[in-house]
Amino acid sequence: MTGSDLSETAQTLVADGKGILAADETVPTVTRRLAALTIESTPEIRRAYRKMFFTTPGVSDFISGVISQDETIHQHDDNGTPLADLLIRLGMIPGIKVDYGAKPLAGCPEEHITEGLDGLRDRLREYSKLGARFAKWRAVVEVSDRLPTPCCVQANAHALARYAAICQEQGVVPIVEPEVLMNGSHTIERCEEVTGRVLHAVFGALYEQDVSLEGMLLKPNMVVSGGACTTQASVKEVAVATLRCLRRHVPAAVPGIVFLSGGQNHLVATEHLNEINQLKGPKPWTLSFSYGRALQDEALHAWRGEGENLGAGQRAFYHRARCDGAAALGRYSPSMEAELLVA
Ligand code: 13P
What we know:
Elements: H1 3-13, E1 19-22, H2 27-35, H3 43-54, E2 63-68, H4 70-73, H5 83-89, E3 93-97, E4 102-104, E5 112-114, H6 120-129, E6 134-141, H7 150-169, E7 173-180, H8 188-208, E8 217-218, H9 235-249, E9 256-259, H10 266-278, E10 286-291, H11 293-303, H12 310-327
């Protein structure tokens, strides 16, 4: 892929009214989510779970691409078609999570550094052959009165930029995901301060390592109150703070910003995205979604691991994708929620 191919793929991923499905939970994480509903986690059940999303009729109207993880990208459908090829056939771009997860950061108790740079070039070559055209790397930043440390912010920014540079060298669009976590009792103001600092460091590192901003996407958290904060910011306050922070720290050359949901309730995640898109003033990037839990939760509850519930799970997923697609255009309305019943 050339630079213009990278930017074309990045733009296709944030086409009007479309966003990304993050279906790249590691095996231990997806096993935890299934276990919460007493669903057994085997390779076959995980394949059925992913396939429910991938084959939802018509969902490519709202989903431009899907992030998978290593197990899924090596699986096939019942006819022997690789799941990545199936996605392409259904009109979605396959993507792949390439990090090895957040590990304890030496010298900084309570903080984490995302690992996985070693061997990344070779892994990307293999994933490209399997059809992946974009990748994801997630860094996590804990917030408290004392955290994050400058060491944590700089180390993760550096690793994100190294990852992004290697992806672009291999013709793969990097999704750069620095997640400031919602866990904790911090205020929305503290979240905005930390998110701004992290984005500033990330774009500094991307600049130093010559990453093409046109050929990448940013996947940030929204600026929200900590989950345990006694004062929870309103939808409007979240939208205003999020957009202000992004305007201050994200260059206009980045084609798209695709938010993570980070533990927000699915309805709230839809409302926040819609409100952000409804705000007046400059928005030089497309603002869309790359949700995991907020796109999957209703479908998981409807499916519950039973083949006979496949249709119900797919209807739930289609509905949420449609609502989030509308929110990406600032055209969502709560009245859409009732339409699931007649879909
Ligand atoms: P959530 O939307 O559940 O936060 O997942 C998005 C993601 O890809 C996290 O890395």
